[in-house]
Specification:
It is elongated and about 60 Å long. Helix 1 packs across helix 3. It has a domain of 55 residues. It contains 3 helices and no strands. With 99 residues, the protein is an all-alpha fold. The protein starts with a helix and ends with a helix.
Length: 99
């Protein structure tokens, strides 16, 4: 497999991911409770995966995929931060109820 094929496949996958992120962002904008069902570990792992792909795009020197992937990376970082915030608030509330 040559570099051009890898670049083409990565670009296609990145565009599909971008469409998915735009749909997710639309859902969250309409209803902020849309993140309610996201798991803490899941959002963190997807963020790490997205970060890995961004690093690959930088190593491949592919500015289009870097730009397209950045929205994906930013969304999952924010989703993780909000999920983590919700998780810590729930733990704090749960521990205060026990006392």
């Amino acid at each position: 497999m040559n570099f051009a094929t890898i670049d083409l496949v990565a670009g296609f996958a990145n565009i599909v991911g971008l469409v998915a992120i735009v749909l997710l962002i639309g859902t969250v904008v309409r209803d902020r409770k849309g993140l309610r069902g996201f798991s803490l570990s899941g959002t963190f792992l997807i963020f790490l995966s997205s970060l890995g792909f961004e690093i690959i795009y930088v190593l491949l020197v592919n500015p289009i995929n870097i730009a397209l992937g950045f929205l994906n990376l930013a969304f999952w970082l924010l989703a993780f931060v909000f999920t983590f915030q919700k998780w810590t608030l729930e733990r704090k509330h749960h521990s205060s109820v026990k006392m």
